[in-house]
């Protein structure tokens, strides 16, 4: 990624180098999902990044979909990404030239300050596994704010969505990409489409 003045941060339990290496692998996985969306002739105009941190995933989305605007949501409470703050996220987005295409909300993904069907697409990476409680609430909020026939790109470690079918009522898993990150760790990206009304 390496753009001067841009720092997407250091993940909990990882060195700076490990965090960067992880992001490079995650970028490749998301790129496959973006190709799937393009093949499906889906081009989002409005995207919400849930637990956006310093904007790494937002950057992937905005660079791939030039018409899109993004809303970054995070509590910035320090869990998961050391030293993250809304000011640092904003500085990254400005350095990448996205100042006119982004909005920021300091909010909890389990209680989103948006009306129903506000976005064409929601994206999230490395966030929901950290929610000790309220994971189901976060899923239901993610679905609520996406419009019918919109998409959710849900990337995470540790959560096997198949075991939680009730999280996915009202939507359909279209693609699943899985990559081994370590001996016992897998990163899985689900491409989920919300059902029509
Ligand atoms: C490991 S970081 C991932 C950041 C970013 N998605 C990325 O891939 O670089 C997890 C992020 O989730 C945020 N987070 C954790 N719990 C949250 C919650 N309940 N609501 C909103 N954000 C939350 C943290 O503040 C942190 O920025």
Number of strands: 7
Nearest-integer average pLDDT: 93
Instruction: Provide the number of structural domains.
Output: 1
Integer-rounded radius of gyration: 15 Å
CATH domain class name: Alpha Beta
The neighbouring-strand order within the major sheet is 3-2-1-4-5-7-6
CATH topological fold name: Rossmann fold
- Tally of contiguous helical segments: 4
Q: What is the general shape?
A: globular
Query: Can you name the CATH architecture?
Result: 3-Layer(aba) Sandwich
Classify the beta-strand content into a percent band. 25-35%
In CATH terms, the superfamily is Vaccinia Virus protein VP39
Distance between the termini: 39 Å
Unique ligands:
S-adenosylmethionine
Largest sheet: 7 strands, mixed
What's the order of the H and E elements? HEHEHEEHEEE
Structural class: alpha/beta
Approximately how much helix is present in the residues?
25-40%
Enumerate the spans where pLDDT stays under 50 for 5 or more consecutive residues: none
Domain Methyltransferase: 47-150
Protein name: Methyltransferase domain-containing protein
Organism: Thermogymnomonas acidicola
């Amino acid at each position: 990624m390496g753009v001067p003045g841009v720092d997407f941060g250091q993940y909990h339990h990882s060195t700076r180098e490990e965090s960067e290496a992880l992001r490079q692998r995650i970028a490749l996985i998301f790129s496959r999902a973006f190709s799937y969306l393009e093949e499906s002739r889906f081009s989002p105009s409005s995207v919400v990044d849930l637990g956006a941190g310093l904007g790494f995933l937002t950057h992937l989305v905005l660079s791939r979909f030039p018409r899109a605007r993004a809303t970054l949501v995070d509590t910035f409470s320090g869990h998961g990404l050391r030293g993250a703050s809304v000011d640092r996220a904003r500085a990254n987005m400005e350095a990448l030239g996205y100042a006119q295409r982004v909005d920021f909300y300091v909010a909890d993904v389990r209680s989103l300050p948006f009306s129903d069907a506000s976005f064409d697409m929601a994206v999230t990476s490395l966030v929901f596994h950290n929610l000790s409680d309220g994971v189901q609430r976060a899923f239901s909020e993610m679905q609520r704010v996406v419009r019918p026939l919109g998409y959710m790109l849900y990337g995470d470690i540790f959560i096997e969505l198949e075991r939680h079918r009730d999280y996915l009522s009202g939507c359909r898993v279209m693609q699943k990409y899985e990559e081994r990150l370590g001996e016992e760790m897998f990163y899985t990206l689900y491409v989920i489409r919300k059902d029509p009304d």
